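Teaching assistant here, posting this on the class forum so everyone can see the example we discussed in section. The complex has two components, and the goal was to see what a joint structure prediction looks like when all of them are supplied at once.
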Amino acid sequence: MNREQVLDLYFLDARHKLIELAAFLDRVEHAPGPADFRLVAFQKALDALRRGVGDRAREVLMAFSDPTTEPVPAAPGKGACGAWPGAGAVAG
Amino acid sequence: MVSRVTDDYQDMVTAGCMAVCEPAFWAGYDRSSVAGFHDYFCQLTDYEPRRAAKFGLPHYCWLCLNPKESEDVVFAQEVLAILPGFLGRPNVLGIGEIGLNKNSRNELKVLEQHVDLAARHQQLILVHTPHLEDKHKGTRLTLDVLRADSRIRPERVIIDHVEEHTVQMVLDAGFWAGMTLYPETKCTPARAIDILDRYGPERLWLNSACDWGVSVPLIVPRTGLEMRRRGHRPEAVDRVLYQNPVEFLSQCPKFKLS
């Protein structure tokens, strides 16, 4: 597919997701109380999105990823929250 | 598929699916006894094949203790002790989906024990990689375990749930890479096709998430449809959706398609 064909197929969907993203950020901003590490990771991922060239999906995924290399002493639970809380922290 | 209704089998046959391969996975809660796993393995090797057969759909499965239940090493060893008794059943393809969930030391120990079991019984291996923030690290740790065991042949192992940040390391190590497709939150059909476009079809395959969460059993055929919309030729779609899984799974002599 050429670029125009890619746009034909995916532009409206991507536009929809971008607006959802903007609305999410507004929603978070207008909500009372403090944010947490997830919003920090989100901003980091947005920076990666703006910076990336041709490898944006990978860069965004890495922005949310645990960068450490050693296994953790014990599983803190079963679920993943989508963002690494930082060394020594446990995702709630 | 223990987490799905019978209509899903009917829909899969209608959509042209030739077989279903169900990995052992978490029940949504921790099983409280070895007997619970025994019953689950019986369900995967007895009841589910019969349920699928009503619609002419061959049912295969993978057996293991899922990484989400690997934190209790003693309990895991007790479950692993009953596994060999099921490996000879006619629809068992191998050991899976083993792997890591939160990348803990105990999960790694249990992963090593599963790998040892597979090697001793000459079984194919299906690996689950962790989700979201744990995936990249977990994939690296898993590759370390597999590469450390000289009995493991990479072409007999598929590492599932790869995404853009993990697919390269899996393929570079000589393993098969699976992309489990979800309608939301994880790898979507569009992204999977992007990965195929970038890395080519060699040792890559697609599979549908059919679990307790939001998932679509027909997402593989739908991805085939999206490949066609993106200009992939029918032979290319067939290679990824059908030929590649058949090539890998045929390494298990029990895997036959009529």
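For the discussion questions: Chain B has one domain: 6-249. Residues 6-249 of chain B form a domain with the TIM Barrel fold (CATH 3.20.20.140). Think about how each of these relates to the inputs above.
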